[in-house]
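In this notebook, the sequence line spells out the residues, with the fold written below as integer tokens. This is how one looks.
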Amino acid sequence: MADRKASAIWEGTLKAGKGSMHFAGYDGPFTFASRFEEGKGTNPEELLGAAHAGCYSMALSGGLTEAGFTPEKIETTAHVALRNVDGKATITHIQLVSKAKVPGITLEKFLEIAEATKLGCPVSRALSGVEISLEAELVP
């Protein structure tokens, strides 16, 4: 196993300032508007969603392979809900939407593995305090 790191810099006040997040060659600007409104740039919630989608897709591939199936493609999107709870910005829900092409698997078996993966992938485990839902689909 490996340890990873990422960093962020913020300059200025909350609403007028700007920042950037850095990891593995990625440099993403963010602002108050990109986080809490619809401004240009990224935000921590999108990066968390990307991490969760990537983790889930890899873990689902592992679970399918372990069960004797060879996935051809897994595409996952994570919808991260940021809401005001008791006056504080809070991630309240993450919906994973995953579409997978897996020859030879039944829908029932696929859904069983997909649901177990939702609970077991490392990012889901780290986010255990957040409600996580899953919409999983087999595609031809």
Q: What stands out?
A: Residues 51-138 form a domain with the GMP Synthetase; Chain A, domain 3 fold (CATH 3.30.300.20).
